[in-house]
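Below: protein 1.
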Amino acid sequence: MVQLLSPEGVRKDSPEYPIDLDAEQLRQALEHMVLARRLDVEGTNLQRHGELSLWPPLIGQEATQAGAILAIGPNDQVFPGYREQALGHWMGVSIADILATWRGSAICPWDTVATRFGAYPVMIGSGALHGVGYAMGIQRDGMTGHDDPSTDAAALLFHGDGGMSEGDVSESYVFAAANQAPIVFCCVNNQYAISERTTVSARTSLFRRAAGFGIHSVQVDGNDAIAMAAVLRDCLRRARNGEGPCFVEAWTYRMGAHTTTDDPTRYRSKEEEQAWAALDPIVRLRTHLLNEHLIDDDWLAALDERADAFGASVRAAIDDIPEPDLVAELGNVYVDPTPDIRREQQELADWLALDPEEAN
């Protein structure tokens, strides 16, 4: 497993995955992770207050996204799972648009082309084929193989360990390998597919399964933002250069629940959670930066103030979510609404026009 920053915050070198990050990039990575965790706290609280229908906690997995933002090129397209909220925000998706999705007010209110951040595939693994299809498209558009990151492009697709049990995901590996598609699969292995351990569905390491499809695969410490950046940079470079797909298994842990409807105390122990808490990605990078004198207590105090301000902006963003036009949203299911969709739109419009007492 590739690890460049030990749990004690000691930096290591890797001849295979060299990376040079300056002090500002490292400080920004720490800030990104702190704000990502704050977004998670606020999202969970908003759901508990009834403002959101559902929220998928990301606490503990911040380093996978902090590493990704350090690796993505100017033309790369991200296909998220449903925990990459922080990454989406860093790429230009507004907090209000993210919250609107989890409130059930919109399907995908952001511009997936302008932000280069795709829609959430709430159905497990359903986005993998879309990502491979996109990668095959940019391959055929001649956007790979020029050894020029300013023009070349790749797709970065996230899915969880549970997604690897889905047929769509296996089929996407076949298509990616057969077509040498410029895509990097980032499997965030947070140890549980909802309430089942990954070991139930996988008798071997997940990155070894990808190798069986003929895909270059790497296992990386997913709680190490520097290692994540180094490995994803290398894999995206390979993809852009026309060297085919890559698979990255980010070995991490979901510290929170699967979603706000889940109770993880029913299927895992306090001892296990405490063991992983000692590997906290934020503490690890913060310790490293303090030891290297790249940050100090004043910088951390200022970060706390920025986090509080960010938290307040997340709460305030609820007021920026417009009331949904349910009839119009039905029309957004397909590019060209089918006759069934048009009939359902009319039925819904007629029902909404009824007197409330009559509708009940």
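Below: protein 2.
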Amino acid sequence: MDTTQYLGVFIDESREHLDVLYNQLLVLEKQPGEKPVIEEIFRAAHTLKGMSATMGYTDLANLTHKMENVLDAIRYEKITVNTEIMDVLFEAGEALEVIVNDIENGGTGAQDVSQIVNLLDDIEQGNSTQRDHIEEPSQEDSHTFTEVLDEFELSILNESETRGYANYEVTVQLREDCLLKAARVFMVFEVLEKMGEVIKSVPTVHELEEENFDTSFLVLLVSEHSKDEIKELIQKVSEVEHVSINTFSVASYKHEQDQQAVKQEATEAEDSNNDDQDATINTKKTVTKTIRVNIDRLDALMNLFEELVIDRGRLEQISGELKNPDLEDTVERMTRISGDLQNIILNMRMVPIDQVFNRFPRMIRQLARDLDKQVGIEITGADTELDRTVIDEIGDPLVHLIRNAVDHGIESREIRQRDGKPEEGTLNLKAYHSGNHVIIEISDDGAGINKDKVLNKAIAKGIVTADEAAIMSDQQIYELIMASGFSTAEQISDVSGRGVGLDVVKNTIESLGGRMSVNATTGQGSTFSIELPLTLSIMSVLLVELGTETYAIPLSSIMETAVVSRETIMHAHNKKVIDFRGQVVPLAFLNELFETGEMKEDEQDISIVIVKKGDKLTGLVVDDLIGQQEVVLKSMGNYLTNTFAISGATILGDGRVALIIDSNALVR
């Protein structure tokens, strides 16, 4: 079957199941007895196995099947979860990811997973894992028993092996002319029960008593006697023509069952696909609830829609000037429909940041083990949504910051103990909306940042002069660690060194239209804060006038607009402030900031736009308020990358360019 057309879907879904599997393994490690967690992992492994078998990736199917067996044993409390078992399960998860990566990169997905498979086998059988031990089923262990054994029977057979008893398959052939087959069976069973314990017979005992069999039957026997002794006694029964006895191995039996299960699943899946194809031809197609769309197509759709929004603005302006009722109705209807369309397109591109956060718990687990530290992670706001293009770019900077926090921020167990802190350090990963931005905070309860050390290093490297350092605020000093070539680490670490500094992280964030800041308290930890635009395309803004120029303020940052008397302006800490609903709000005079000319002094009232950033408010003083509009955010380009408080530009309906104010930069 040609499965190449399903490859993209297979890879996407495999990654989703791997995420579930790995994250639930982390939970299982902390809550070993949680049945729902085990069920969740089991379901992910089972689905992955079925998918891979269908696509013909045998190693992937085989490995997930072995994981299933171990999880099954955990589920039925045959084995107890411990660190050794979790390590092997994590190792298996990583091997699965390697295979999926190989498939994604055009490989065949063939990997040598025999060692992990054997480790999983050892765990399933209750043996301690021996990493270099590879068990091959011996010829002596081969058997002809094809009947399915239940868990109880397998547990008895396992128990007998551990206690030094032997498991035998005994095949008894009666003579063709045997007249009383039931009587002979009874006599054979009498012998067998003297020699050991009969676990199962094929056919069943009832069928043997009813003589519902040909001339031979098979018995599974647990005994402490040798094959020869048993055989000799059975052959003494009259009308027994032949007796053969083989050793029965539980491991070999399970291995064969596993192979059969994988083959059967692949066959069933293929049959199912064939049936589906036939059904497609002969019957009406079933309703598809979701589809996967290439992000490039969504980008193309968004680009076209952006052009439509610009034209819509132009039409609205023409309609306002002509005052034609029919034209106004048509434009109003078009505005409403295009608004709905815009919401749909934007929502299609929004994905929860959980997709990025998901990978961090396992990364921190491994980092903590490598560094011999105890580190826990707490994630808040994982359902916060961001544009897909931002999500794709934000992963690597976050990885770097987290590695930095675990390596440099959180202290070793001994130091934390000495300082009276819990042995386990905590890393908090938090995401939340603030206006038309998403804030991501990475904070730890580690040692914080040594201000003096940072300053000395910065002066030594010529990043700042001693005079400049003397007047720097704490915040400015902390942010020196994001300067190019800066490092306070005494030794280059494999974990967070890697030749990439925080300056690279900062540049990446800024290239996305975002901003990064850092704050710290010595001995209590540090916080890296990343501010990212919610989307890189269309937004609702309030147009304001400054002198002869029009500016746009994102509506999502605005709390309220107000007109206040000049007489109400007060002074505090050398800043102009107003009392806004009982709260002291600082004012930012945009005409001074953007040098658009003096405001008219003779006017007693001034227009203010109250904007917020988290809990902080600031009043932006403007000349006039024009109105609300949907605009397309355009980048300022490479020549204007460091423009203060300007996040981009837009084209208005009359063709003029309006700068979009980044109000977050003005809120202090």
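The chain has a mean pLDDT of 79.
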